[in-house]
Amino acid sequence: QVQLVESGGGLVQAGGSLRLSCAASGRTFSSYAMGWFRQAPGKEREFVGGIRWSGGRTYYADSVKGRFTVSRDNAKNTVYLQMNSLKPEDTAVYYCAAHAGLTSGSYYYTNAYEYWGQGTQVTVSS
User: Mean pLDDT, the chain, as a whole number?
Assistant: First the structure.
């Protein structure tokens, strides 16, 4: 069982930065693949970024490539989403998710993940 708690959301102006954190419980966090998703009002939840258990490979949606960075610190049971050059269209509730093992092609899909956090709101003003 893994419990996930996101933090770090807030209100920021366009062009600004935020860093989201996702703290995980459980002794086997280091073996879990992690993902970040977001959901804007009236829209489906969409993939933002993901990272392998080792941190050796990351995955990104085209809309955030070059602006967002996913990283993890297995010693702290925490995964991060560094968001730079934020745009109003990045406004959404951001969720982290975990699964014990994912193939490369699975990171992008919500139904591939077993555990989810409660989400944190990110609002980017123009």
Answer: 94
